[in-house]
Amino acid sequence: MENLPQLIMRNSDLSSLAPINLGDGYSVHTHTDGNEGAWEEIIESAFDTHYDFDFLIKAGDYAPERVFYISYLGRDVATTTAVENPKYAKEGWLRMVGVRKEESGKGLGKQIILIALHSLRERGYKSVVLSTDDFRIPALCSYLSLGFRPVYSHESHRKRWEDIRKQLPDRFAAMI
C-alpha cells in the first residue's frame, strides 16, 4: 500500500476563539527542563507510539515556551506545540496534540488546542495549519469544532475525507 501523506487542516480565522475553560485542579504551563519525560509519556499514551522529545525539537521553530501542558493536580495530562512550519510560512502550526488515554473524554484535547490557538493569535498569526491522521476521529471532531477545515493538498485527500465524513457525527460531517 502506498505511504500516503497526512491530512492537512487549516483554521483561517483566529479572531473569535472560544475562551479556555479548565475545571478545578487543572493548570497550564509551558515546557521547562525536566518535562521531556512527561511529554514522551503523554504522546506515547495518545498515539500508541514512542516519540523522543528530540523529535519535537527538530521540526518547526521549537522553543520551550511554545510547548504547552495541562496538568491535573500537578501531573501533566495533555500537551501540544504551537510553532511555525517553514512549508506554511506566516501561518501557525499546531503539532503533536496529545492527551493521556485515561484522561480522554474530558474535553482536554479541545482545551489544549485552544491554549495553543490563543498563543498563536497573541503572536500575530491569523491562521493555523495542522497535520493529522485519518483514524483520529475524536481529534478530527475537535479540530472541526474549533474552525479547522480540510485542505486538499494531495490527490488522495478528497477520497479520504469522503470516507472520514461517513464516520463522523452529522454535525461534524456537515463541516467537511
Mean pLDDT: 94
Structural class call reads alpha+beta
Summarize the helix and strand pattern as letters: EEHHEEEHEHEHH
Number of helices: 6
Quick one: overall form? Answer: globular
Report the span from N to C terminus: 26 Å
- What is the topology, as strand order, of the major beta sheet? 2-3-4-5-6-1-7
| Share of residues in helices | 25-40%
The second-level CATH architecture of the domain at 17-135 is 3-Layer(aba) Sandwich
> Strand fraction band?
15-25%
Task: Give the biggest beta sheet.
Answer: 7 strands, mixed
Low-confidence stretches: none
Number of strands: 7
CATH class of the domain at 17-135: Alpha Beta
CATH topology of the domain at 17-135: Aminopeptidase
CATH homologous superfamily designation of the domain at 17-135: Gcn5-related N-acetyltransferase (GNAT)
The whole-angstrom Rg is 16 Å
